[in-house]
Design goal:
The structure holds two protein chains of two kinds. By secondary structure, chain A is an alpha/beta fold. Chain A has twelve helices and 13 strands. Chain B has a two-stranded antiparallel ribbon. The chains are: A alpha/beta, B mainly alpha. At the A-B interface, α3, β5 and α4 of A face α1 and α5 of B.
Chain lengths: 334, 263
């Protein structure tokens, strides 16, 4: 069974366009002009139970709007949504019992009271029995290492501490489906690792389906086998992360640090016929060769034979760069 | 039911989180009533009664009006407006409860807290200095209690209505402020309605405002007797029900119009 099914989903917003200048401002008092902005444009996809899916895209691509429609907060302009077998905004109160949501940029805990008081309220709201709470939340609290934070008011927690508590709060009713909207925004590396590890365990132990949006590609690499990429409200890639890398991230990057200045023309001439693209690095005398698969030994030996080198670095194309390339080059169909 | 009781508890905790607010609250309450007492003694200026009310009755009227206001007053309209403005309404909508219902319960929690921990201590302080006259009949107190509950419901309904309008306008501080002054003025909090000119009194019969403050205060000062008490309560109950309709209708329209701001 699919946890999420979306068909030709669309959301349009009416945006008030202000006229410019003082005269324009006065005219706005009487009549206003509106433009229709299509934030989500006829997208279709399905997510199977137990999957972890990364939902990525630039700011304003329509990620958050989609999540808000999937969670029943926003009403779609058109299209069909079935999540956990229900229509989210039609049966909102019944539906939201089956999902957990974390918004990285907003707190769902009560600011002035201790974390455990918030938990207690949510426990009542979701009608979780004491027994269930002790068993499930005991584990969650232990895994996220938030035991010592429970009696502190939320406003006294650091961002990392708060985020772990938010995650625990979203899981009080042990939902089969979890939406995470930028859960690691602004967190340090240790907390990110802790959260990722926790999400993995959650997925393995309870088979929790997770849909997450993020700008941090290392989140995606650590967690998701599948990514859905969005641009201007349209899906431009839906498939495995592996395939994305194969198609767009083949080859290696070789960064040479030369002992003295060299020119691009010289380097191009040196590696003629190898299909290498040279780009100037960020430090002085550093040049980066974009080398197609299998070409690294030849490039290194040719360069080393002619130039004095201080250092060589070889690495794979980072996912961030792949994503950036895709956005720059436009839509791909995978 | 459990979740609503729990929410009242949480509201209590939130009110207690800031102690200074609590103590200054009692002080402000006492000062307010004292100020009105001196104002009214100056207006009476030795006259034994005005519009059928003695100075003692008037002082009691003012003290009770403010006591009642502490209970029925809440800022639900502003809270809703704020939650819409900064997008926090999204978090509320992913919870399995009715948004407006939970808001009303939060208002009740706040009202109960202020009634028992703010107004009653304040009233006790004031009664040491001012000649307040309270009725001895249990029936009057009972009617007053019921009337006060209606006041809370009507006031909250008006606030929810004003709050939901924010779903359409996004910014309506001006409207909310105007609404607040209108209620203070026309509900009989500042001046008993019997002091208004006849045409104004007649016009106000068609608005829910007098059901908020004027009726409970008239009941407790025993200015309303017998059938007048019953009519007053009936009028309040009617408004409680009538106001539900525009709320339900606006709320359904509002959910479709909702735009969550800020990411």
């Amino acid at each position: 069974m699919n946890a999420i099914e979306v068909e030709r989903l669309r959301k349009e917003f009416k945006v008030h366009a202000s006229r410019s200048g003082l005269v324009g401002a006065f005219r706005d008092l009487w009549t206003r002009r509106y433009t229709i902005v299509r934030a989500v444009d006829d997208i279709s996809f399905a997510v199977k139970q137990g999957e972890i899916v990364g939902y990525i895209g630039e700011n304003g691509a329509g990620k958050s709007t989609t999540i808000k429609m999937l969670t029943g907060i926003l009403t779609p302009t058109s299209g069909r949504i079935v999540v956990n077998g229900m229509n989210p905004h039609k049966e909102r109160e019944k539906f939201v019992r089956t999902i957990g949501v974390v918004f990285g940029q907003r707190s769902q805990l009560w600011w002035d009271i201790a974390v455990q008081e918030s938990f207690r309220l949510l426990k009542k709201v979701y009608r979780v029995s004491d027994e269930q709470y002790r068993r499930h939340m005991g584990e969650v609290i232990e895994m996220l290492e938030i035991g010592p934070l429970l009696d502190k008011p939320v406003r006294k927690l650091s961002l990392g501490q708060r985020m772990r508590c938010e995650l625990a709060a979203a899981l009080i009713h042990n939902p089969p489906l979890l939406f995470l909207d930028e859960p690691t925004i602004g967190l340090d590396v240790l907390v990110k690792l802790n959260i990722r590890q926790f999400l993995k365990q959650l997925n393995e132990r309870y088979g929790t389906t997770i849909l997450l949006t993020t700008h941090d590609m290392s989140d995606i690499e650590a967690l998701c086998e599948r990514v859905i990429m969005l641009d201007e409200g349209k899906i431009i890639y839906d498939g495995s992360l592996e395939r994305l890398k194969e198609r767009w991230g083949q080859g290696k990057r070789v960064a040479f640090t030369f002992a003295e200045a060299v020119t691009a023309a010289f380097l191009r001439q040196l590696t003629e016929g190898l299909n290498v693209v040279w780009k100037k690095g960020e430090q002085p005398n550093v040049w980066v060769a974009h080398v197609p698969p299998g070409g690294v030994p030849e490039v290194v030996s040719r360069v080393a034979a002619r130039c004095a080198l201080n250092d060589i670095h070889i690495h794979e194309v980072p996912t961030e760069e792949i994503i950036r390339n895709i956005y720059e080059e436009g839509a791909v169909h995978g | 039911m459990g979740k609503y009781v729990e929410m009242v508890r949480i509201r209590f905790l939130m009110m207690l989180a800031y102690r200074t607010n609590y103590y200054t609250g009692i002080l402000i309450y006492a000062i307010n009533i004292a100020a009105y007492y001196f104002l009214w003694s100056a207006i009476y200026g030795g006259k034994s009664s005005m519009q059928g009310m003695s100075l003692g009755q008037m002082t009691t009227y003012v003290a009770i009006s403010w006591l009642a206001r502490a209970f029925y007053f809440n800022n639900l309209d502003r809270e809703i407006a704020m939650e819409i403005r900064d997008g926090k309404v999204a978090v509320e909508l992913i919870r399995p409860y009715s948004y407006l219902g939970m808001k009303a319960v939060q208002g009740l929690g706040e009202g109960l807290f202020r009634l028992f921990f703010l107004s009653l201590p304040g009233l006790l302080v004031v009664s040491l200095f001012l000649p307040l006259q309270f009725p001895g009949h249990a029936k009057t107190w009972l009617s007053f209690g019921l009337s006060l509950l209606f006041s809370f419901i009507i006031f909250s309904e008006l606030n929810l209505l004003a709050g939901v309008v924010t779903f359409f306008t996004f910014r309506n501080e001006g409207l909310l402020r105007a609404k607040r002054f209108i209620i203070d003025l026309f509900s009989g909090l500042i001046l008993p309605l019997s002091f208004y000119p006849d045409w104004a009194q007649r016009a106000m019969m068609y608005f829910p405002f007098q059901a908020i403050s004027y009726i409970p205060s008239m009941i407790i000062t025993e200015s309303f007797k017998g059938a007048a008490v019953r009519d007053g309560l009936l009028l309040q109950a009617t408004w409680c029900i009538v106001l539900l309709f525009p709320i339900g209708w606006l709320w359904r329209a509002a959910k479709k119009r909702l735009v969550v701001q800020g990411g």
